Amino acid sequence: MNNPTVSNILDKLKPTDIWGFAIYIVIVLCLITLFMQKENSPFLITLLLAGGVMAALMEKIQVFALNNCVVMMVFPLIVVGMTKTPKSRGFALGAALIAGLYLFGRWATLPH
Length: 112
Hints:
Strand content: under 5%
Order of helices and strands: HHHHH
Oligomer: single chain
Number of helices: 5
Structural class: mainly alpha
Number of domains: 1
Radius of gyration: 15 Å
Distance between the termini: 26 Å
């Protein structure tokens, strides 16, 4: 069993190609959307955006063989529909679109 070390995890977090930068753009857009929410917004929005950030980080580190890209795309889309802050919808939609491009781009370029 291969035990992960801090240096191995930090090496995997480096953006080495266009896909790595796309993941970090999704993370930044989700965080911007999270910070733009009103004080009385539903807690589910916070959980969904945090889940999207965690899915993006797990996709970058390749923790599981599961496909985290779907979560990375769907959670910001749900936030677009349920947020009460109109200014944050654009950032959440941008995160969902870039995550969708990442999902289909990785699917098209990875060997099947």
